[in-house]
Structure formats: structure tokens, C-alpha cells
Design a protein that fits this description.
9 strands; homodimer; alpha/beta
Amino acid sequence: MKVAFIGLGVMGYPMAGHLKKAGHDVTVYNRNSEKAKQWKAEYGGETAPTPAEAAKGQEIVFCCVGRDSDLREVTLGGQGAFQAMAKGGLFVDHTTASASIARELAAEAEKRGFDFVDAPVSGGQAGAVNGKLGIMCGGKEDAYAKAEAVMAPYTKMAKRLGPPGSGQLTKMVNQICIAGIVQGMSEAYSLMRAAGLDIEAVTDVISKGAAQSWQMENRVKTMNAGQYEHGFAVEWMRKDLGIALEEARKQGVSLPITAVVDQFYAEVENLGGKRWDTSSLFVRQEAARKGNKK
Amino acid sequence: MKVAFIGLGVMGYPMAGHLKKAGHDVTVYNRNSEKAKQWKAEYGGETAPTPAEAAKGQEIVFCCVGRDSDLREVTLGGQGAFQAMAKGGLFVDHTTASASIARELAAEAEKRGFDFVDAPVSGGQAGAVNGKLGIMCGGKEDAYAKAEAVMAPYTKMAKRLGPPGSGQLTKMVNQICIAGIVQGMSEAYSLMRAAGLDIEAVTDVISKGAAQSWQMENRVKTMNAGQYEHGFAVEWMRKDLGIALEEARKQGVSLPITAVVDQFYAEVENLGGKRWDTSSLFVRQEAARKGNKK
């Protein structure tokens, strides 16, 4: 199949590679063209100088960029892919972006006679490299079915959750849950450390029951050791929580602890933690505890 | 072995039964003596009119009552068990109580020449009936070893976490983690419902990754259906969070979201939810959302 991939970051680069290895004709575009040349040298395929030229004549155009503003530029901008999409084509967006822009791009695509699926992913760089991503999708059923088949080489699990924006909303919900879990754990661990308990021994007991979580099982050792140079970075978590809080504002939903935890992440950034894993809320929590003892 | 059991509530009644079925000579005491007679009719054994008389001449005295004040009455009160404990004996407290009272009772026991182990449990009524409780213990190693052997008939997992009070601290930590998890889920689910997403379908996707938790896997269906007549009651959760917040105050630890979630549980109580499961935070969250739409 003739496809394009826009955005060769840590996620997009290997994802586009999986498409090429699966036998598709892949044309790539990247803002920094050196990266596109490197990709072509590694996988073959073609490069294009603009998103519009990459999109021209393709059956499906995939995209994975940073933020709403980047996504807007590569779709609706003067050289954007939407200017060149073929009628009957499909645009699949893997960016973690707002539900609003997903709905807006879906409406715009419909006007221009092609389909749009929002499809943010989870699983991180390792998932992209190993072809084991979770993909949360929003859009029409037939458009999703078409996307699903082609995404297969980098999919661990994909699901359509509803109309355009549903993929983005699902990703938000994921991050909201993580925020509550990690801050709860951080408070619990801070109390344990103050009281002189062995954090890992206590976790071994409580992780057998109703307090169990993926975060507890996968982050207790690193939190206890003060290691945060891994996982999902605080600055990206703040981007995602910002999107969730903005969407909640539009929907008239209050997210009280999500809002507070987002502020705590601002404090983690101020402690030097922009690139630390989300479990670094424990650093802020412990800094506050030590302050109490002065 | 000659043992006593003080407090035949929904937990103590079957726990004492397990001890009797395991072949121990069991004497029971309960504030409401009808319950003690009923227990004797079911299991055999003996009843005693006061905690002190129950405790007299026993190798181990177990206890499972409601609150710190009840525990103080049955131990240090005029008719309390501590007045009659044999030298070299052991008092094992299964009450979920403060770490402070555990430390106080351990010190008092030491003065009087016997041992004390705090041993709050998790697993609920079903765990007590089926003999599958998690038991979190604090106290001396040899005292714990003695308790562990006798508690075996109702133990799924038991562990000594440190000196007196460590069992209670571990139970607190468990509840703090749950508070963060359930409020995060409630916020996430509220946003989903406002946006018209299928809560169970979305959960099916996000529970495969970093947002996964026992609460998510075990409570999504009932939360989505508005069913809360099961599980661990809000009023008991508030008791436990109150203990945790008091202990944190003493330790100079701030528990920001735990404190907020405790207040949310106060609102759930005002919505009629004293006996609802802890997952009923979603009711408050949804009430707040609907309020926004008036």
C-alpha cells in the first residue's frame, strides 16, 4: 500500500520503519530533514520536503508529532498534508493531542472527502521499537478497520473507542488514573520513610490486595532508590494533564486531585525533574517532608 | 494451646472459630454476650464475662474490636485483659487502630512481662470466613513467630514489618494508596461519562498498561452500574484515613491528596454513603459534575 509517515521522533522513526519492513511503499517527512535522510538510509523508501508533498497520492498518511500546534502545522498549514490528501484517503494521527483538535481535524477531513482517525499510543519508545504499542482510536468504524490492518506491525492492542477524539480522551483518562496512583503511593511511601519502615517489604505485603497497581509493582524499587532516569518524562505528563484539564473545563467536569497533582509536577520540574519519570512525585513529597523537620 | 479471643464482630467471630477448629482451647469474650453464647453453641469452647477473665491463664490472647477507644477499654480498662495476662504470655491485636496505641500497649505489656503484636488484617469478612487474611504485624521477632504459627488457620499471608506499630502503619499505607487510586479513577470516569465514552471499553484498554490497578480491575463494572452495597465501607475508610492523617501529623509528613480524599468521603457520607464501598467516590464526583450543568 502507498503510505506516508509524518514525524520521525523517538516514536515515529521506528513505527515508520515497521511499515516499510511490512512491505508498504513509505514516504516520510520530518521537520529536521537530516533525520528523514537517516531513516531512508536505514529502511529505504522515499523522503518528501513538505507534509503536503508526502501526503500526495497516498492511501493512508500517518502522523506522530509533539503538540497540538505541531499537529496543526503539518495538517492545516500552508504546506500541510490536508492540502494534498487524496479523496477517499485516510489520515491517522498518533500524536497525543487534545480531543478538540481531533474533532476539528475529523470535521475538516470530512469536508475535504477523506477520513481521519485519532490514534494516540502507549508503550513508550520500547513499544515503538518492538512493535508492541497500545493504540487508542477514535473515528468511523470503516476508517478504523482500514487503519488497524496497516498498523498491525507495531500494534500490541488497538481498539476503537468511539467517534473522533475518543482515542485522545482515552489517553487522558489513562494519565489521570496514573496521577492519582503515583501521588497516593508517594504520600504512603513518605509516611513509611518518616516512620522508619522498609518500603519494599511493606509494598510486598500491600501489593497482594486492594492497593495493588502496575505503578506499585514496577516503580517501588526505583522510587526507593531515588532513580528516575527512565520511563515517561514529567514534562510530557504535564502536557497530557494540561490537555485533560482543558478538556474537563470544556465538559464541565472537575478534576480536583488531577489539578493538584499537575501543580505538584510543576514543582518536580522546579526541582530539576523535567525529564524524570512520573514516579518522581515522590521527590517533591520527600522534599516537603524534610522541610517540615527544619 | 490455651487461647482467648476478644471481640466477635464480623471478623473476630469466624477468626475465633478457625482457632477452635484447629484444636485450640478457646475462650471468647464479646461486649454483647448473646453473640458469645451463639459462638459457643456453634463452635464449643468457653465464654468469659470480662476481658480480664477471658485472658486469665492464656498463652495467647487475640483481640479484634472497633476503634482505639474500644481497644483501650478491653486492654487497660478496669476489667481489661492486661490486668490478668500471664507473665510470658502474648497479646495479638487484630484491630485496625493507631500506631500510637500499638506502641503504648506494647510498652505497657513489656512493663507487665508479656509480649504485644499489632496485627491488623486485610481481606474483609470473606477473608475471615475463608481463612484467607493478609496480616500486617509489628512487634518483637520471637513474639511474631509465636503468633504466626497460631494465626495460620486464618492466614493467607502474614509478615512482620518492624517494631510495635509497624502493622498499623502498613495498614495505613494501604489505605492511602487506595484513596489516590479510587479518586483518580473517579475523575477519569467522570470525564469519560461527560464525553460519552464507554467506561468499560476504555478500562479494558487502559488496564493493560501503566494505569492498571486492582481497583480498576475489580470495581469498574460496579462503579459503572452505580452499585456500592459491597466491599469496604466508607465510614471504616474514614476511620482508617483519620488514623493515617493523625500519624502523619505526628511524623511531620504532609498527605495532601489523602487529606482531600478524606474530605470527599465526608461528602459521600452526606450523600447517604456511610455503608457504601470505597469506590463510591465516583458518586460524589458525578454529583459535582451534574451540579456544573444546572
